[in-house]
Design brief:
Keywords: DNA-binding, Transcription, Transcription regulation. With 198 residues, this protein is α+β, with helices and mostly antiparallel strands. Helix content is 38%, strand content 24%. The protein has 6 helices and 10 strands. The strands form 3 sheets. The protein has a 4-stranded antiparallel sheet. Strands 2-7-4-5 form a 4-stranded antiparallel sheet. A two-stranded antiparallel ribbon has the order 9-10. The longest helix is centred in the middle third of the chain and has 25 residues. The chain is globular, with a radius of gyration of 18 Å.
């Protein structure tokens, strides 16, 4: 959780509900609100000139959406789209910026959160240069597992679908599925009831 919900409510944040595939904001629009997910999953994506979707990240309960752009006067470079039914707290930008002055510890939490995202972005951009689909998927799984206390083999259930993993690594779904099967054969992961344990 980036900011405690009660603090956001106390300064006038409203709750908005989104259905699957509904846009929260669109590429090219300017940030006017701080968004924080109470419940649900949101993907940040964009499309290339051929219309192929590229998923930048998937956010879930407690995560903020696009907060880094509230500090600069630039348009969103991505879309934010609900993957599931979502309940999202929405706070006007000017109130959010005042809130950070009132609560310096929130600024620290936001810095940590943005640093984790930047780290992920750097790891994934290095990884995308790799030619091996298995190496791309392993880097993604290593990153996801890095936030867990338990690091034993097969102790972490990957919380993404094969399609989401493909989108996050720039692979087509069929290639991701084949690579996951190779990784299972090589004992890098296990598959139980269609779930990936890493």
């Amino acid at each position: 959780m980036v900011i405690k919900e009660e603090i956001l409510h106390s300064v006038g944040a409203s709750i908005k509900n989104y259905k699957p595939s509904e846009s929260i904001f669109t590429e090219g629009s300017y940030p006017g609100y701080y968004y924080q997910i109470i419940k649900g999953e949101v993907k940040l994506n964009n499309f290339n000139e051929d219309g192929k979707e590229s998923i930048q990240t998937i956010l879930e309960d407690g995560h903020s959406i696009g907060e880094s752009l509230l500090f600069i006067d630039k348009p969103y470079p991505v879309n934010a789209v609900a993957l599931t039914n979502c309940e999202v707290l929405k706070l006007p930008k000017y109130i959010f910026l005042d809130l950070l002055k009132l609560y310096p510890e929130i600024s620290q939490d936001i810095n940590v959160f943005m640093s984790e995202r930047l780290y992920y972005g750097l790891i994934m951009s290095q990884n995308l240069a790799s030619q091996s689909p298995a190496a791309k998927l392993k880097t993604l799984m290593d990153y996801l597992k890095s936030f867990q206390e338990e690091q034993a083999p097969y102790s972490f259930m990957i919380p993404l679908t094969r399609q989401q993993m493909a989108g996050l690594t720039g692979l087509c779904v069929e290639t991701a599925i084949r690579a996951i099967k190779v990784m299972e054969r090589d004992k890098l992961l296990q598959i139980r009831n269609r779930k990936i344990l890493y």
